[in-house]
Design a protein that fits this description.
781 residues; alpha+beta; four-stranded antiparallel sheet; 22 helices; 32 strands; SPA1/2/3/4
Length: 781
């Protein structure tokens, strides 16, 4: 047995319910006998053989720590003995031999009187801290009486035989623990008359017999120390004790080696798992490289044919499917070609000209092809994240679960209208959507299609360009916070609404094409309360819905600037409204009263902050809540959600559908999360496809909008941030700056934040507004 640290032997003996182990007791006793034997061999009487004069270290070593007066004539008085035990230093009369024993056993140096006074002063504080707790004065007084031999009590001087008697008392205490002070006093009083407790006689008969031998009333009948050391009572257990100690040490060494072995095996297991994973990744890369090279070969063979036909739209579609090393200079959206940042403009233009002349793309210098990767600063800066996104895309199992709810066929538009690539947004008109060329879709198979498309879009754009600033006329109004932006069915007009209690409708192209100091709205509609959300009807061009802070939902006719319908079903502020794209007669709303949907009510326990219909269904609805979750319901059975998305740590402020089975949510936990609804097998999804980080959002509504895989959101750093659904890091960003009215210089105001964003339905343009009412029309270039 080992103790937690140095402890007084008296303290250890008096511990309640102390277990008695024979080897342990004999080990302690034999060490004390050895100390006494050394003193007796020098003719020194150790009259302080008492538990309070010894302490045990954490390794079962017993050391002599108190005064051990050596004298051939007379013992110390009772008062002197008590004072000796209460002292914290060795008396001058202490035997040098016992001091050496104490130093050897304790492993520390005990300062002597002849030591340098300076050293003593330096070590006194530490010595006082290291002293074990000392017994109470009453215990020491009783202990002195217990350990006084009969001849000493009769007035005779202390002798070597007296030390043997004290060894007998100590042996008795080792083998006979008691539970209380009163029982201790009775037991020790009986011991003076050599009356032993029955439990000692029954359990430890050899120890009891040995105690009686050491406690013989006649000093001459007691054994000598050498007899004690040579007795079978100590010799046989001592041999066993040595064997036991050796076995314990061997077991400890084996355990230590086992620990080391397990540690090494664990490292080997983890490294082997990492090696297997790396090997799988390398095999996957080899397979993908081979697949991409096949696509490259096929596209290279077909490239000349496409060039000979001179069809620019087909050529552009083909480029999207080629290996990135061959299309680095001319990746774009639809028919628009953009020079990727970091590439050599001259080579890119030369390549474009040659392609239009019908020449093969192999004229690109091999040196340029090999170095394009390192010249693209955005790719290299985000290389690790792009690598992680690639591995996630490749290792994600293909969902086999059917999409939740009934799916309505709907195509994503990618055709060109002459102004640039068509980008489908969450509010695009149904009639304006046109499918891709079927031969292009057929060729985009496997993992290459989504990842390459995302990589091309991520790298083909370099910045957000300001196309126009919307400078409003009501500059004297101090409350210009724009809470919501929305484009109409055709992307011709956009509306802005906020705390100024007005819905302002602007003509987008007129603002872009006419550089005016102040932009006046085409229509302005006044509300009785602050407005929180607006939404255009995707079928009726002039119809727009609004919600306000009083819980009122209104439907307006923008062409006349009048309210058509007013609904007062909510009891508290309405945060969000949404028209169904499939059934334009359906309007959903979410409120602080924890409810939503006009024709029916879904009651929730927490505030509803956002609602959204899927793009292809009017029978389903998703909404985000203040309980940090997103709920997806089938409106035909609104008692329980079809699916609950769990992953955000704060309020979910926005939800938007990317496609029929993919949804993106925004939260005030600084993240956007992308979810795959088709993976919902147990009504709960707790693992998003991606977590988008790079913007700041901890307390405000900052806006969310999606278009053709691009996700736009605001930031409390007064920035618009663009993500692509394939990658978790920002692709583009633009910071709103405040213009000083006096100097005209731009300055950064940390109190401002982006409050709303919205994509234009049929272009790569979006409109964004911040907390001061500053509205900008931005374009990805």
């Amino acid at each position: 047995m080992r103790w937690g640290g140095d402890v007084s032997l008296r303290h250890w003996l008096d511990k309640p319910e102390r277990p008695v182990e024979e080897f342990e007791c004999l080990h302690i006793f034999s060490q004390i006998v050895d100390i006494v034997n050394i003193a007796h061999s020098q003719g020194i009487v150790v009259n302080n053989v008492r538990p309070s004069c010894f302490y045990m270290s954490s390794f079962n070593h017993v050391s002599f720590i108190e005064s051990a007066s050596g004298s051939d004539s007379g013992s110390d008085s009772l008062e002197d003995g008590l004072n000796d035990n209460q002292g914290l230093e060795l008396r001058d009369s202490c035997s040098p031999l016992l001091l050496a024993i104490s130093q050897q056993q304790n492993g520390t140096r005990v300062p002597l009187a002849e030591d340098n006074e300076e050293d003593n002063d330096r070590n006194v504080g530490e010595g006082e801290r290291k002293q074990p707790p000392f017994p109470m004065k009453e215990v020491l007084l009783m202990e002195t009486g217990w350990y006084t031999s009969p001849e000493e009590a009769a007035g005779s001087t202390s002798s070597i035989a007296s030390d043997i008697y004290r060894l007998g008392v100590l042996l008795f205490e080792l083998f006979c623990p008691v539970s209380s002070r009163e029982e201790k006093s009775r037991t020790m009083s009986s011991l003076r008359h050599r009356v032993l407790p029955p439990q000692l006689l029954l359990r430890w008969p050899k120890a009891a017999s040995y105690c009686l031998w050491l406690l013989h009333p006649e000093p001459s009948s007691r054994p000598s120390v050498s007899d004690v050391l040579q007795s079978e009572f100590l010799v046989e257990p001592k041999d066993k004790l040595e064997e036991r100690e050796a076995a314990i040490q061997l077991r400890e060494r084996i355990e230590e080696q086992d620990l080391l072995l397990e540690f090494l095996l664990l490292i080997q297991q983890r490294e082997q798992e990492a090696a297997d994973k790396l090997q799988d990744t390398v095999s996957l890369l080899c397979s993908d490289i081979e697949e991409v090279m096949k696509h490259q070969s096929v596209q290279g063979n077909n490239g000349s044919t496409a060039a000979e036909k001179g069809k620019e739209d087909l050529m552009s579609s083909e480029l999207l499917l080629m290996n990135p090393s061959q299309t680095d200079d001319c990746l774009g959206l639809g028919s628009r070609k953009r020079c990727r940042p970091g590439c050599q403009t001259q080579n890119a233009e030369e390549f474009d000209d040659n392609m239009e002349d019908g020449q093969n793309s192999s004229i690109m210098p091999s040196q340029a092809q090999g170095s394009l990767l390192f010249k693209n600063s955005r790719l290299m800066k985000n290389f690790k994240k792009l690598e992680a996104a690639y591995l996630l895309t490749r290792c994600r199992p293909v969902a086999t679960v059917r999409p939740l709810g009934r799916s309505v066929s709907r195509h994503s538009p990618v055709s060109s209208d002459g102004r640039g690539s068509v980008v489908a947004s969450e509010r695009s008109s149904i009639s304006g959507l046109q499918p891709r060329a079927q031969h292009v879709v057929a060729r985009q198979t496997g993992w290459i299609s989504p990842f390459l498309e995302g990589l091309c879009k991520y790298l083909s754009l370099s910045k957000l360009k300001v196309k126009a600033d919307v400078k409003q006329g009501d500059l004297l109004n101090s409350s210009n916070l724009v809470c919501s932006l929305s484009f109409d069915r055709d992307g011709e007009f956009f509306a802005a609404a906020g705390v100024n209690k007005k819905i302002k409708v602007f003509e987008c192209d007129a603002i872009i094409n006419k550089n005016r100091d102040i932009q006046y709205p085409v229509v302005e509609m006044a509300s009785r309360s602050k407005l929180s959300s607006i939404c255009w009807n995707s079928y009726i061009k002039s119809q727009i819905a609004s919600s306000n802070f009083e819980g009122v939902v209104q439907v307006w006719d923008a062409s006349r600037g009048q309210v058509v319908t007013e609904m007062r079903e909510h009891e508290k502020r309405v945060w969000s409204i949404d028209f169904s794209s499939v059934d334009p007669t359906l309007l959903a709303s979410g409120s602080d009263d924890g409810s939503g949907v006009s024709i029916g009510t879904i009651k929730t326990k927490a505030n509803v902050c956002c609602v959204q219909f899927p793009l292809d269904s009017s029978r389903s609805l998703a909404f985000g809540s203040a309980d940090h979750r997103v709920y997806y319901y089938d409106l035909r059975n609104s008692r329980v959600p079809l699916c609950t998305l769990v992953g955000h740590s704060k309020t979910v402020s926005y939800v938007k559908f990317v496609d029929s089975t993919t949804i993106v949510s925004a939260s005030t936990d600084n993240t956007l999360k992308l979810w795959d609804l088709s993976a919902c097998a147990s009504r709960v999804i707790d693992a998003p496809l991606h977590s988008f980080t790079g913007h700041m959002n901890v307390k405000n509504f900052v806006g969310l909008s999606v278009a053709d895989g691009y996700i736009a959101t605001g930031s409390e750093t007064n920035e618009v941030v663009i993500y692509h659904k394939a990658f978790p890091m920002p692709a583009l960003s633009y910071k709103f700056n405040t213009t000083d009215p006096v100097s005209g210089h731009e300055m950064d105001d940390t109190s401002q934040f982006i409050s709303s964003v919205c994509w234009r339905g049929q272009s790569s343009t979006l409109v964004a507004a911040n907390s001061t009412g500053n509205i900008k029309i931005l374009e990805m270039v």
